[in-house]
Amino acid sequence: MKRKSVIALGLAAVLGCSLLGGCGKKTVEPVERQRVETDEDKEEKQETENTQEPESEKQEPEVPDDGRFHGKWIVDAEYAKGRVGAEDTLFVDSRGEKQAILGTIDGAIATVWQDWCITEGKSGDEKWGCIPEPEVLSGILGNLGITKDKEIILLGETKDGWGDDSRLLWELLAAGYTDVKMVDGGLSALKEAGAPTQFLASRPEAGEVSIDKIDYSHVMTTEELQKNYDQYKIVDVRTDEEYNGAILYDEAQGGHLPGAIHIRYTDLFQEDGTLKPNKELVQMFEDAGLSKDDSIVTYCTGGIRSSYMQLVLEMCGFEDSYNYDQSFWRWAVVGEVE
User: pTM, whole model, 2 decimals?
Assistant: First the structure.
């Protein structure tokens, strides 16, 4: 019994020393060993990745089903009417000064898309109709007072026009502008809403504009289209006459790009000139054979109507879409047609 007591006291002493830091001996911190990934771990990781929703299939934001179009670059006439006269908002009439003489929105300046692109030579020439170099475009926009610190609201005519406002908006986005919008229904809708009007456009107040580079994320070039034609679904947005071969605007030849899907620019709009609701437009695009996974190129005669189509496609979730700014004027010179 006495021997057992001594042994017990010894064990207690050893245990006490351990708890007190080893009775003066240096404590050795345990080294955390990195766990080796086993085959079972890899399989579990792969199963987890497979069950995660792919980025492209994530649920899109719900769009209100109220009979109107909703998109980040579209505002209704009531909103635009409320911005007339605001110091930080500039209205730009894309129909030009000749049309603005007959009436435009109070304070609006006027310009035309031809002044925003390369126009040396004639339509169909190489680079004709393309976005100019950053320093050139900076000068154009600066002279018009279209600066990045302002909200820019673009005006045009929708189903009765060519989408001039969309061409300017598309180009402003490429130049790095973010606060840019078009009025749903165009100038007519804004007048109908009772916005104050004036005869003649206002005189632009020049400002400082510096564009570092052009973003070509939604720009299609002739060279790229020729090189990788089969990778794209091509959408012709012109009229039935043009699609079927009529030469209306001095094109080098009539017809359309091989295999082009025909969705008219005017098909985007309701009777009152406002855009059709998102759901209806998506259905129209899908019925025509387009998928949100497709790479889509839109074209018209000079990249104007097709810019509207590209922007609407993008706002409807067809994000891999491109406007061919040289369009049929150039393609009729260098490419095959049907």
Answer: 0.82
